[in-house]
Hints:
The protein contains seven helices and four strands; from the N terminus they run ααααβααβββα. By secondary structure, it is of the alpha+beta class. The chain has two domains: 60 residues; 83 residues, Glutaredoxin (3-Layer(aba) Sandwich). It has a four-stranded mixed β-sheet, covered by helices on one side. Strand 3 and strand 4 form a beta hairpin. Helix 1 packs antiparallel against helix 2 and helix 3 packs across helix 4. The longest helix has 13 residues. Keywords: 2Fe-2S, Iron, Iron-sulfur, Metal-binding. Belongs to the complex I 24 kDa subunit family. One of its GO terms (molecular function) is oxidoreductase activity. It comes from Parabacteroides chinchillae.
Amino acid sequence: MDTIHLPQTKVEELHTICAEHNNDAGELINILHAAQGLFGYLPREVQEIIAADLRLPVSRVYGVVTFYSFFTMTPKGKYPISVCLGTACYVRGAEKVMDEFQRQLEIKVGETTSDGLFSLDCLRCVGACGLAPVVTIAGKVYGRMTPEKVRDVLSEYYMLGE
């Protein structure tokens, strides 16, 4: 496993986050949420710092990170894409939409493009079943997606990313 080097300013912010929660192990999930907001993901080094500040075994922090699907240990793209594969979206063609994102971005689910612009994931329900199939990109919801619309939607973000 590669070691990453965290910027010292962010490490100090992480210590501050832990201190603001009184280094209380009962606040672990809240601290992890804040840490993921700060770093974009929760690499091993971040988990080790949190464990030390909260006086917890790293295995407990890791267990929480891997249990909850919201947390991620891999960096996400600047524009994370999530394709809903819940029942309503699935029966209305979400799998074909997912396949088209994979084809155009040349990545698989769980991966990030080499330029760091996009990462691709799936989720179970956005709560917008009437708009199925639904895709979210960087928090923006796209309803009634079709494979034919994928290129146009991506082009919006390629223009922003340059």
